[in-house]
Specification:
heterodimer; A: alpha+beta; 4-stranded mixed beta sheet; 2 helices; 4 strands; 37% helix; B: mainly alpha; two-stranded antiparallel ribbon; two-stranded antiparallel sheet; 64% helix; globular
């Protein structure tokens, strides 16, 4: 079961901060991050990669994106 | 399309964008823009405020086409790449107030972060104090961000709402075409023009507009941000945006050397003063305000171009702030800070701290 980080409607750096907090908390596993701009999508992906997490999937949903990251 | 879409957001993309902005800024100065002010978002918005009579400082009145281009160039990029997302509702009044004080802080230093970089690239040592202030202000902002500061979620809105600032800019451009500057006249129709001083120095309209459009386009794609550069470094140890800013300084420096615009020193720099505490203090205020609002003045224009109504409010706050700055004697001049500039910085910092401390909520 993936953990969901809902950063929809929030502008950066909030989505990145929320993602990194969750990464720190669970260390390993799968997180789905919901964002609604391309900038947030890029920033969250870049931050996750910098922590050694892999971008498993990016889906366009409800006018935004769902980014699945894994470690 | 996907590959093309992301090319500006790569490391080399952002470096290329920063470098090109540096080159264009130095060339705009060569082609007529004021000294070490090839591009200054705050100064140019202040000049726009003067052109429409929000303040009546005679030396800083000109409808700067670069600003118009920044918004419209971003709008075009956002539409081409399907990133136009009309949105608003994340504490607009707070963004307006932050815009007002960001402008006041910038006018105490005499430049926004963009101009601080360009002043540095032209050898103006006073900019070092401003950059230290900028970093200090952003650092305070990151403490608030780490403590849960945020302005809440945006709502999706009508496309036409996202169009309002771009349309305003288009309206400004049309006004400029209907009422062009008449030699020796301080007013043309409804628009004010400077006859001397920085407001009278500008590249040709077409060149300024083209440069603005180009920068607006590539900055929207790359998310170039002079505040984000330092914020991301401090918060995440990420140098992505910073590499673009460094490229800007390096390329502007090289072009300045080539065209004879590099003059190292502190005294008698163009549109600058040497009161270092207030070069520093003004930019602490600006840096904090930009940080709390989530983007430097350029980034706010690019965001407004892609439909962000809150960024548009911030831009309007900056333009109104320029009115306060000149009407109330807050803006500096080459002689030093204005009669009430110091008080304004202290009040601005107090307001920003109030915002930072009271708008903290962990989002579940």
């Amino acid at each position: 079961m993936s953990i969901i980080v809902d950063a929809g409607g929030l502008s950066c750096p909030q989505p990145v901060l929320m993602t990194l907090d969750k990464i720190k908390e669970i260390q390993k596993g799968e997180i789905i991050v919901k964002v609604d701009t391309d900038t947030s999508k890029e920033n969250v992906s870049r931050a996750a990669k910098s922590q050694g997490w892999e971008i498993a999937d990016i889906q366009e949903k409800e006018g935004g994106y769902q980014i699945t990251i894994k470690k | 399309m996907g590959r093309l879409k992301n090319i500006f957001a790569t490391r080399w993309g952002i470096i290329g964008v920063g470098g090109l902005i540096g080159v264009l800024a130095a060339l705009l100065q060569k082609l007529g823009n004021p000294g070490n002010m090839g591009i200054c978002v705050a100064c140019f918005e202040r000049d726009i405020a003067g052109a429409i009579g929000i303040h009546r400082a005679a030396v800083v009145q000109y409808m700067r086409p670069e600003i118009i281009g920044f918004v419209l160039g971003s709008l075009v990029a956002a539409y081409i790449f399907k990133e136009f997302r009309p949105r608003t509702g994340s504490a607009p009044i707070v963004r307006f107030v932050l815009g007002v004080f960001a402008m006041i802080g910038s006018l105490v230093f005499l430049g926004c972060p963009w101009r601080a970089m360009l002043r540095l690239a032209a050898g103006d040592g006073n900019a070092i104090f401003a950059l230290l202030g900028l970093i200090g202000g952003i650092w305070i902002g990151t403490l608030f961000l780490k403590g849960g500061y945020n302005l809440g979620r945006v709502q999706k809105t009508y496309a036409s709402a996202g169009w309002l600032l771009p349309l305003t800019m288009l309206g400004f451009l049309i006004l400029m075409l209907i009422f062009p500057h008449i030699e020796g006249q301080g007013k043309s129709g409804v628009l004010f023009y400077s006859l001397k001083g920085p407001g009278a120095m500008h590249a040709h309209l077409i060149i300024s507009l083209a440069a603005g459009l180009a920068i607006g386009f590539i900055a929207q794609r790359s998310r170039f941000c002079t505040m984000g550069a330092f914020r991301d470094l401090i918060l995440f140890r990420q140098v992505h945006l910073l590499s673009g800013v460094i490229a800007l300084v390096a390329c502007a420096f090289i072009v300045n050397l080539i065209v004879g615009q590099f003059h190292p020193g502190f005294a008698r720099q163009p549109v600058a003063h040497t009161m270092q505490i207030w070069n520093f203090g003004g930019m602490v205020l600006s840096g904090l305000a930009f940080s709390l609002a989530g983007g430097c003045p350029g980034r706010q224009l690019f965001l407004a171009g892609e439909g962000d109504g809150d960024a548009a409010i911030f831009v309007l706050g900056m333009i109104v702030g320029a009115g306060f700055a000149h009407n109330f004697g807050l803006a500096s001049s080459p002689k030093g800070v204005g009669p009430h500039g110091i008080a304004a910085v202290i009040i601005g910092l107090t307001v920003c701290l109030f915002i930072g401390f009271t708008m903290r909520k962990r989002i579940s």
